[in-house]
Amino acid sequence: MRKWLWLNLLIITPIHAVEYLDHEKAIAHWIDSEFEVSTLTRAQQEQELRWFVNAAAPYRGMTIRVVSERIDTHKYEAAVLAKAFTEITGVHVVHEQTGEDDVIKKLQTQIQTGVNLYDAYINDSDLIGYHFRSGETVPISDFIDGEGKEVTLPTLDLDDFIGLSFTTGPDGKIYQLPDQQFANLYWYRHDWFSRPDLKARFKQLYGYELGVPQNWSAYEDIAEFFTVHVKVIDGERVWGHMDYAKTDPSLGWRMSDAWLSMAGAGDVGLPNGMPVDDWGIRVIGCQPVGASVKRGGALDGPAAIYAVTKFVDWLDRYAPPDAKHLNFTEAGEWVGKGNIAQQIFWYTAFTRGLTQKGSPVVNADGTPKWRMAPSPKGSYWEKGMKLGYQDAGSWTLLKNTPEDRRKAAWLYAQFTVSKTVSLKKTLVGLTPIRHSDIYSEVMTQKAPYLGGLVEFYRSRGRDVWTPTGTNVPDYTRLSNFWWQYVSKAVEGKLSVSEAMQEMATAVEDEFQQIADEKKMTCLPVLNEPKDPAYWLNKEGAPKAKRNEKEKGVTLSYEEAIRVWN
């Protein structure tokens, strides 16, 4: 156990002697009115919040600014937790929300200009490859041991965070503190899949049981079944597939957030495949050496072309016509309309919106008509590979933020993940980060109403649904290529093969530019190009073309969720 994890609530000692006057009233008010559920006792909550009062004393009256993307968890932080922290400590917080792409742009601008725009960022751990290479980020583990020691919560309990491996670099340092996590999982209408008439009809047509698909062939059959053969349920037009493809950055997330890994484009190995990861990038050690097949990468290989071809084909044939014009947020809410049979990967960040009584997808007793389960695997997937993506939005401190402001922001960051408030935040946003919260009795009671979310986070699946890894040297610069090139295939401007070849070339050009700038460690060193057959005939990625339409395989829901374990 790390030396900073001497976490015992009973040994908290004040940093500064202060009078508990209005602070005491604020503590009592917030525990009674908002933080009524916690894995801590009330006395332990009071003691934890008093520590914040003492630690924040030197920064009282200061206004700090932080920024995050716009999801339910961060809305709660901005509207409730920022106010609570201000009233309890006297440190004012402006918690701004914006689009995920804009968060990354703001972080990049602060690094490039040296101007302290924000005192802390909640950005995805997808940037871990940049954070550990660039030298611009303060490693959280160094901060806790050094300048931030006196403002680090004794009850922070890093070992309790389920996503800490996602924010740890190859050097063993922790670069970010997880604030929220959500996964992309298979979503389907359990009530429809359970109907005897639909089950019998599906088996007659396809020769196997209607159930949770285990491979892409089964998913495709089910998509065809509901879209082409069933068509109408309870007087409403229904669709067998849902996705989104608007030409904007969120289309890129759809692809880079492990679409290729589900198809099987990368190598065996967790968290991201080694030496070829789920972006199709090959590394030697920590140095990227290629993305194209001719350099040993897989971004334009048969598995990647198969993956994007299915993405485009399913959109055209089985999704509502509107799907091509929707972005991430709009599509995530669409399944709540009640006319979608399944979605191959659906972000659990939208769970809360599908649990409201009166919704077309919720029963009268509040239980869901839907379930989430492991996503089906593509034809190139092999045992030992990652299967899906998990977002880990995490607190990030930059070196060009003044030390006093960094310390004050660190206090707020810890408050938003503290055990006093984390269970309530989990219930609001359904993006759990702590082992203790997931296994609490409160979550056990909530599980029947969340359609498999609790079962996922109590399983090993939470460790193998992983974010973008360290092979990606600069997520900010490279992530834009996904939507710029995949959109050309969606719009028919290029074939899928042409789009992926152009993208692989663009990624490698960017690698070379990063290498020429010499501003990072573990710089790209591109392999010399070879005949693609040289790499395709070797074991592992890039993989030669396979049979891409194997027989469909399904499982019951109960059998399917056991896959997570």
C-alpha end-to-end distance: 26 Å
* Principal-axes shape call: globular
Estimated helix fraction? 40-55%
How large is the count of helical segments? 24
Strand residue percentage = 5-15%
Rg, nearest Å: 24 Å
- Name of the top-level CATH class of the largest domain: Alpha Beta
Q: How many domain modules?
A: 2
> Based on the structure given, which CATH architecture of the largest domain is correct?
3-Layer(aba) Sandwich
Examine the coordinates and then state which fold CATH places here, giving the name of the CATH topology of the largest domain: D-Maltodextrin-Binding Protein, domain 2
The average pLDDT value, as a whole number, equals 94
Unreliable stretches, pLDDT < 50, 5 or more residues?
1-20
Give the helix/strand class: alpha+beta
Reported for the largest beta sheet, the result is:
7 strands, mixed
Number of strands: 13
CATH-assigned homologous superfamily of the largest domain: Periplasmic binding protein-like II
